[in-house]
């Protein structure tokens, strides 16, 4: 079945993620890859082609707002050519779509070429928003040179641009925009995997951050910032950064500032759990493992703080080197803090706000893209249905086209 054919999904229980309710007895009429209407099954136009899902649940396609499809091995930088990394990205993208993630925002590495490859059908995968190369200061989280490496190359690090000073960061933003980036990512603080920085130390001067956000906003882009420490979060938000990635040491006071500035938080809690299992096996140092334990311990608290303050909380995974199959497992971590109904919002309607696609994705409503996951369980009984264990996803529809059809509902 192609997205050009009109048809209606019947016999389904529609998950209304905004109201937190299940809608029964309604059909979803799909036309041109979008949801034309949601009506009582008895009100479908005569002659409408129907596909019955047999009482299963229909959720909006999931959204991962911190994905890394281009990164797959800890020592990729300087050792693996971009051509091989792109080939691997095709596998990661297909896996993501089959898990029910119909839209992803890549947080560095993937570029406009990956996005276009999906749009042209050269790859099978989610709708994609890309950052291109990540901006990092010298010695920042994007600078993966060893301490003995004296190369001052501005592109050191493979997926990063090392840019220092107002002129360099301005150029780096413009260069990313020239190459088709949808958003700009900066390293505004230390990270787990980088050798030369500490988690607590903020990165980039305030003038540099302001220059980056000014350049991005002037051409309709926005800035996302990798940052853990509360001081780094506050500096970034107060100088125009729109989305905070990770944010594990967020305090209530800074969360209030985020609300005032309409900034979003995208936690990536699953990566710390997965990397805690696999980190030493793929080459982490004891320092990396120690940093990971630190952010894992504080992650749940930051989520509680953000929700209590009213921050729009999204959902990201940040799975770089651990298996991408953990992509849905992070929902179980969110669920521990706020329950299944709210946690599902994080990966759907809340993330739609993050990528500025409200009403287009993340909800099953009239006019939205027909991105739908068919689930053989009620997700409000537990989001384990999207995780590796007890997974109950049996079908995925993207822009009206069945891309996964375990039950062969669309073969008739």
What shape does the CA trace take?
Answer: globular
Strand order of the largest sheet: 3-2-7-18-19-20
Question: How can the largest sheet be summarized?
Answer: 6 strands, mixed
* Class derived from helix and strand content: alpha/beta
Just name the CATH architecture of the largest domain: Alpha-Beta Barrel
What's the name of the CATH homologous superfamily of the largest domain?
Answer: Metal-dependent hydrolases
CATH class category name of the largest domain: Alpha Beta
Strand count: 20
- The helix count comes to 10
Whole-angstrom Rg: 21 Å
What percent strand? 15-25%
Tally of individual domains? 2
State the main characteristics.
globular, 6-stranded mixed sheet, single chain, alpha/beta, 21% strand, 5-stranded parallel sheet, TIM Barrel, 412 residues, 2 domains, Urease, subunit C, domain 1, 10 helices
Question: In words, what does this structure look like?
Answer:
The mean pLDDT is 92. The chain folds into 2 domains: 7-61 and 364-405, Urease, subunit C, domain 1 (Roll), CATH 2.30.40; 62-354, Alpha-Beta Barrel (TIM Barrel), CATH 3.20.20. The chain contains 10 helices and 20 strands. It is of the alpha/beta class. The protein is globular, with a radius of gyration of 21 Å. The strands form 5 sheets. The chain has a 6-stranded mixed β-sheet, with no helix packed on it. Strands 13-14-15-16-17 form a 5-stranded parallel β-sheet. 31% of the residues lie in helices and 21% in strands. The relative contact order is 0.16.
